[in-house]
Design goal:
With 162 residues, the protein is α/β, with parallel strands linked by helices. The protein is built from 5 helices and 4 strands. It has a domain of 101 residues: Lumazine/riboflavin synthase (Rossmann fold, 3-Layer(aba) Sandwich). The chain starts with 15 loop residues before the first strand and ends with a helix.
């Protein structure tokens, strides 16, 4: 029988950073509200949630990098909203942000969650930030708590080997 390892949805004793873009602020505020509500519902103390506001999605990765250097955080959630416009700017921002965050996530012992909406239009963004489709802020919060829990299992294994 294989060993199945998975994280739990218990946020007690976790410290979470949320790095959020101010661009498309009406959408990102909705993402943040859902994210924080879900973190608290999962047991994360309100004062254990640090929110870092940045101008746009491109500026999220450098702040995530600084948060990873801090060693206080059990998980880092990124929230933002990039809506396709008339130029290729959308493609460059989406691709660059995703690549930078993926690199950071692969090279650290702290989970980094990608909660940046990349939508074709405002209606899609609204639907995914608490509207008819789903709430990506809530999803990112649940995923962060679960991944932080799973990552502690690796830390426990490392301590057992010492």
């Amino acid at each position: 029988m294989p060993n199945f390892l998975q994280g739990e949805h218990d946020g007690a004793d976790l410290t979470i950073a949320v790095v959020i873009s101010r661009f498309n602020e009406t959408i990102t505020e909705r993402l943040l509200d859902g994210c924080v509500d879900e973190l608290v519902r999962l047991g994360v103390e309100d004062e254990q949630i640090d929110v870092y506001w940045v101008p746009g999605a491109f500026e999220i990765a450098p702040v995530v990098s600084r948060c990873l250097d801090d060693d206080r955080y059990d998980a880092i959630i990124t929230l933002g909203c990039v809506i396709r416009g008339e130029t290729s700017h959308y493609d460059h921002i989406c691709e660059t942000s995703a690549h930078q965050l993926s690199e950071l996530a692969q090279n650290d012992a702290v989970p980094v969650l990608f909660g940046i909406l990349t939508t074709e239009n405002r209606e899609q963004a609204e639907a995914r930030s608490g509207g008819a489709k789903c709430h990506h802020g809530e999803y990112a919060a649940r995923a962060a708590v679960e991944m932080a829990s799973l990552f502690t299992q690796f830390a426990d294994d490392d301590e057992d080997e010492e």
